[in-house]
Design a protein that fits this description.
284 residues, Rossmann fold, 2 domains, 10-stranded mixed beta sheet, two-stranded antiparallel ribbon, 23% strand, globular, UspA, Universal stress protein
Length: 284
Amino acid sequence: MQNATITAVLGVDARPNQLEALAREAQTQGTHLIVLLLSETPAVPVYSMGVGELSTYSLPAGWQADVDAAREAVEKQRAEFSQYLTDQGASADVRAVCGDASALRNTVARAGLTCDAVLIGTDLREDKRLLEDIVHAALFESAAPVLLNTAQAKVALTPQSVFVAWKAGIPATRAIRAALPILRNAREVTVALFDPISISAYDGENPGTDVAAWLTHQGCNVAVQQYASGGADIGTAILKRAKETGADLIVMGAYDHSRLREMVFGGTTRSLIEQSAFPVLLSH
């Protein structure tokens, strides 16, 4: 992603050397890094004493001390990251964000409005709820695509083989548009359709040829593959076929069904977010 701006979102347990591969790739591609270090503070535990007009509110004595310690720790972390990236010669802006869950979501969403991609650090997988909050904020409240499982930054940002899970619709189209700089430079792009319906009312008589023509005109080396899921979960089928093609990156539209439906019943997007074997680019 030449001359791109990438926001890297990391948690309190992240260490500077986690960005080594990304910093090297940033130098090569002329990429500017915005690093967000997130530290979630405990919710305000307000206690009420008394009844009616005589009631008063108080905070436990140790809560403010815990908040101050968290802020001090993340500021120290910010200084370490800043020095590390300076030593690496990377163009970077490191920001420490300490607040409640809603403040962290808003910070990520705001950053996603003015960058080319939001990269989610693997360390955030230690807190499943926070990971889902951050991914959803980036997908639904910003304009940038989300990159997951990018420990090997060179493979994820300059992949040679890309697997595009295509389903005609706005999410998948936005994912391809966001990934175009990557797709143009890849050696091969596989456009994969699962259980396609070959009638003109859906994807045309030969599903996938329209998106393949678009990408070919963009200078991509494209092959269309149609797969039968065999009744398997589509997320599992995508991972299986991506592995067979030797893909370095999966590109997919996120939450083609409603987010509530996928949260309750599961779904392809949720499967791709929860897995950690493949780098994934998602867009909604």
